[in-house]
Write a structure and sequence with these properties.
- By secondary structure, this protein is of the alpha+beta class.
- Helices cover 21% and strands 33% of the residues.
- It is built from ten helices and 38 strands.
- The strands form nine sheets. It has an eight-stranded parallel beta sheet with strand order 9-10-13-18-21-22-23-24.
- Strand 26 and strand 27 form a beta hairpin.
- The longest helix has 18 residues.
- The radius of gyration is 24 Å and the shape is globular.
- It starts with a strand and ends with a strand.
């Protein structure tokens, strides 16, 4: 089976765009071509003679334009063999596309990890539980067992970091900002955070919690992180917390606003490591408002109940974007449905999760290693994705990156309430076999409208078969919504140009048939699967 992979997770302006072709063999039957498309237009191409590397360039040999591009491998007769996507960016990727690694045994083969990172266009990897102990990251020497007994060889960690750099991705070391294990606890008991009974807050009998703003602790944590950068080569850190406590007492009885302590800790680490990439875990949206004012590189939210519905996921993304415009939003959502539902129902659940996050400008920490899905907050308890699941996840990741111009960036705004819905007639969506809604209501087609620099974008998500619109529950295949039409108020005398794209078809923009009647134009939509993106092109 043919496959294409970009060499890097993103490309700088003018940097050669190299695409690897694998498994072509005799599959094409004739000379093949790799082509790139952006905003509905051909942007690059290269002839393919067989397996190996090709370099994409514009039709006249010029570099590819800034933005996301869908990339296809097709036969000379036009049959689609494989697809991927690339991004060209002037100063770094448009969004943090996050993955994870959990295993660092000696002589580990990293090829599968790197292939998956390239296929998913990962820009940063969280190196989970790489340290010797939570409060003593480098105290184990070159080889040791982590706190739960997993083997770690720092030579493997360094090799992983070097390989990630080669594909344009950053490596972030996991570090809890206030956790101390039993062995180190006697040294830090004086800085404990206590509950109303005077008991130290703890994660079971495994870890206890100190005030992250205590000066002695901050000095210790800063020294640990600095040593990890210097000795291991990390590009930065994933700074973790557990979502509690929100308020506590120090051992001396002083009240602690833990959100404020987190801000103090983040600012101290930033001052110490000004060039480092820093991501902080806002567990269940705590304390996103406070940390969004600090110099982090993404707004990262780990999602838990009561944020169980698609509407909750959408709200988290929108609030995070509003709190820190221009900053990447990453939602850590662990779909346990993969461990407890038939594959097709888990797949449709994943589609709805991805459609909701992507259409609201967020990316997801959901997959990593060599093609595994996070289903549990302890990352080594992950789920090996079936081949069909891996294909779905990479196809949708290609779609997100190929259309990143419509999905991320501070200049994308939600205008649903002023353009669509009962009072408005600027954007009117109808289907012959299903009702529409501007909210993710069960049994409907969900419509959302955004304004982008390239024009209006309408996101259409099929919830016709959904009874419980949750992001981590089995979902049936969507019903046929019938014939779909998008009625638009015209601005110009000529008909608007309308394009659609679907991650479950070929993934790139295709023109719609548009008819004009008076002040409005109507676009006939293709069949609705799970998510259809409609672009009304600016003129």
């Amino acid at each position: 089976m043919a496959r294409i992979l970009p060499h890097r997770s993103w490309y700088a302006v003018g940097q050669p765009v190299a695409i690897e072709v694998r498994g072509l063999g005799d599959e094409s039957g004739s000379p093949s071509q790799v082509s790139a498309h952006r905003l509905g237009r051909l942007t690059g191409r290269a002839a393919v003679a067989g397996d190996g590397w090709v370099e994409l360039a514009g039709p006249r040999g010029e570099p590819l334009a800034v933005g996301g591009h869908t990339v296809e491998l097709r036969t000379g007769a036009g049959a689609l063999l494989a697809r991927t996507a690339i991004e060209v960016a002037p100063a770094g990727p448009s969004a943090v596309r996050y993955g994870f690694v959990t295993a660092y045994e000696s002589e580990r083969d990293l090829h599968g990890v790197l292939d998956w990172a390239r296929a998913m266009h990962v820009t940063a990897i969280q190196c989970y539980d790489w340290g010797y102990r939570h409060a003593d990251l480098l105290g184990g020497g070159e080889q040791y067992a982590d706190p739960l007994g997993n083997p770690v060889d720092l030579a493997t960690v360094r090799r992983l970091i070097a390989e990630l750099h080669a594909i344009g991705a950053s490596a972030l070391g996991y570090a809890a900002v206030y956790a101390v294990g039993a062995q180190e606890w006697p040294d830090w008991i004086g800085h404990a955070l206590l509950d109303a009974t005077g008991t130290a807050y703890a994660l079971g009998d495994f870890l206890r919690v100190v005030d992250p703003a205590a000066p002695a602790w901050l000095a210790h944590l800063g020294a640990q992180l600095t040593a990890a950068v210097n000795e291991i080569g990390f590009d930065g850190f994933h700074l973790d917390q557990y979502g509690w406590p929100k308020a506590a007492l120090r051992a001396d009885g002083t009240p602690v606003d833990v959100a404020r302590s987190f801000v103090t800790a983040i600012e101290a680490v930033r001052d110490l490591l000004p060039e480092a990439m820093l991501i902080f875990n806002n567990v269940n949206d705590f304390p996103t408002v406070a940390t969004s004012q600090t110099a982090l590189d993404a707004t990262y939210i780990e999602v838990w109940p009561p944020h169980e519905r698609l509407a909750d996921l959408a709200g988290l993304a929108l609030r995070a974007r509003g709190a820190s415009p221009g900053r990447s939003v990453v939602l850590a959502a662990y779909p346990s449905v993969f461990t407890r539902a038939p594959q097709e129902e888990a797949h449709e659940s994943a589609r709805l999760l991805l459609a909701t996050a992507y259409s609201h400008g967020a990316t997801l920490l959901m997959t990593g290693e060599a093609g595994r899905v996070l289903t549990d907050p302890y990352y080594p308890r992950n789920h090996e994705a079936a081949p069909a699941t891996r294909e779905l996840l990479t196809r949708w990741a290609d779609f997100q990156l190929g259309h990143t111009d419509f999905l991320v960036g501070p200049d994308i705004t939600d205008v649903t309430g002023s353009f669509a819905g009962r009072y408005n007639d600027d954007v009117v969506l109808t289907f012959s076999g299903a009702p529409t809604s501007i909210a993710p209501d069960p049994g409907t087609v969900w419509c959302r409208v955004t304004r982008t620099p390239a024009g209006l974008v309408v996101h259409i998500v099929n919830l016709t078969a959904v009874e419980q619109p949750v992001w981590d529950g089995p979902q049936p295949p969507p019903h046929d919504a019938g014939a779909g039409f998008l009625r638009l108020r015209r601005v110009h005398a000529s008909a608007p140009r309308v394009w659609t794209a679907d991650p479950d078809t070929d993934g790139r923009m295709q023109p719609c048939r548009v008819t004009v009647s008076g002040t409005h134009a109507t676009a006939a939509l293709p069949p609705l699967r799970t998510w259809l993106m409609v672009w009304i092109e600016s003129r």
